[in-house]
Automatic annotation (TrEMBL):
Coiled coil: none annotated. One of its GO terms (cellular component) is membrane. This is Transmembrane protein 41ab. It is a multi-pass membrane protein. It comes from the Eukaryota. InterPro entries: TM41A/B (IPR045014). The chain crosses the membrane at residues 79-99, 111-129, 135-157. Keywords: Membrane, Transmembrane, Transmembrane helix. It is found in: Membrane.
């Protein structure tokens, strides 16, 4: 058992440049041939590698699972591949949901103002064709509006905290 783990690890290190997520059909074909070769002696390890890669892509919503679905058919046959792909899609999307529900809300809500500012600024900059456009009233007003929107959440939080502290102080003093 230890020898097979060592030989598989060594083989994976030697062929690590060939093991990557496929981005086109030629790469998919090459990867399928390589994994079929490994599967002859190490079926369990290939299944574990495939499941880990699929769950990684699904759990973090990384595009490209259609290539992994095709790889499942090539490696495990149409019926076993279909079953494996369906189970992994279900588990991976559930993981994605649980990760988003647990960690996503506070990060996404915090990043909305920053992303809006960057996207809007990029849209404004894409319309600028000369240095004179930078100093046009329209561009300056748009950038000023974006700057105000960037400052608004901090100002509201500061004001809300000040009012809350004042109310707590008034409540405690009576």
């Amino acid at each position: 058992m230890l020898t097979s783990c060592f030989s598989l690890s060594l083989s994976l290190i030697m062929f690590s440049t060939r093991l990557h997520f496929p981005s086109d059909l030629d790469e998919l074909r090459e990867l399928a041939e390589l994994l079929k070769f490994y599967k002859r002696q190490h079926t369990g390890y290939v299944l574990l590698l495939y499941c880990s890669a699929y769950l990684y892509k699904q759990s973090f919503a990384i595009p490209g699972s259609s290539f992994l679905n095709m790889l499942a058919g090539a490696l495990f046959g149409p019926w076993h591949g279909l079953f494996i792909a369906c189970v992994l899609t279900t588990v991976g999307s559930t993981n994605c949901y649980l990760l988003s529900r647990t960690f996503g809300k506070r990060h996404i809500v915090r990043l909305i103002p920053y992303n809006f500012i960057c996207v809007r600024t990029g849209a404004i900059l894409s319309e600028i064709t000369s240095l004179d456009d930078i100093f046009s009233w329209r561009t300056l007003l748009q950038l000023l509006l974006i700057a105000c929107m960037a400052l608004l959440p901090g100002a509201l939080i500061r004001r809300y905290k000040t009012e809350e502290e004042h109310n707590n102080y008034m409540y405690k003093s009576y």
